[in-house]
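The authors assume throughout that readers already know how a fold can be written as discrete tokens. A single example would do more here than another paragraph of explanation. An entry of this sort, consisting of the sequence and the corresponding backbone structure tokens, reads as follows:
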Amino acid sequence: MSADAKAALIPTTRSDHFIFIVVTLLYWSTLYVYVPILPPFMKSSGYADVLIGIVLGSYGFTQMLVRFPLGLASDKLHKRKPFLMLGMVSGALSCVLFTIPGSWLWPLAGRMMSGVCASAWVAFTVLYAAYYASSEATKAMSNISFMTVSGQLIGMTLSGWLAGAYSWNAAFIAGIGLGVAGLLLSFAVKEPREGVERPPISLQHLREVVRTPSLIQVSTLSILAHCVLFITMFGFTPLKATSLGASSSQLTLIVIAFMVPHAIASLLTGRILAPRYGSRNVIAIGFALSALCTIAIAYSPSLGWLALTQALNGFAQGMHLPLLLGLAIQPFESSKRATAMGFYQAVYSIGMFAGPFLAGFINEAFGRDYGFWLGGLFALAALALTLIWRRSHAQQSA
């Protein structure tokens, strides 16, 4: 192994790592501190499901437009820290917009601003990877993936408690505070003046990358997976919970029921399940289980049953989402991986937009339970495609 592979691009201390970890947790907490209460908040304000779907979908729509250009700008400047700060500012501003009463356009603007915040995530991953030697890239990504789920869980857990103890606006105000705290602390994040270089996102490579069949297949599956995720836990599942009589504190328990198995599955999938059973087999099982559990949400007679569907669905989605991420960049040499990842992240944002957007119209026309049927059909479509492409992959490998 070369000396370069053993040395980190940015020499760091424990305190440097600690500061980055706290900033990352604040970032995801700011972004997710209102996610479970947003649909009930809008419903209590008198908005129809179709408008709720448009607002929820705008998060993904913004990322479709912003993620790739932000990645290009970050690579051109070789700077990641300003984009960390942009994420914090836009996250706090999104929460400010949600507190403005009077029109559904304010929540729409807030959710679109949160899409800008989410688009800054690539800068976090690139900077954190530079804290490790190239030979430890897997360890770095595993750590930051755990930070992601932890920050989301902190934010979503606070969400229901704040809404129950105080008011809907308490979660948004907390989000402002978390964003401002993250912004101030991000000044202490270590990045050298010359910045951090990596093989950049390249428009020249883009044409070649997007013609790669495996990337097209994985991106299609990820669109469908994110349709399901943003119809369910990050979409209309909280409204199902409140329709079953869930209080704000019980809403928190529904969130935990989903997120904890999701985190556990994310850790187990790459380390144990995929090496033993094969990535495509695990992805297929994940989609099959997710389809059943998403449709089962519609028939949940009580909060206990709903919590069970969320626990199983959280685990199922934790089985396929991390593997799709790895498969997206697997066939590319290092000089093209940034471009492949930029394309992949921009494309799966289509699912974040299309899932809740379409479900909102379905809910309004036929009833909310049919939105979960739509999510289940997306998962079944992904299962069918996975099985078809698994067979063709096996034939090509033979």
Summary: The chain has 16 helices and no strands.
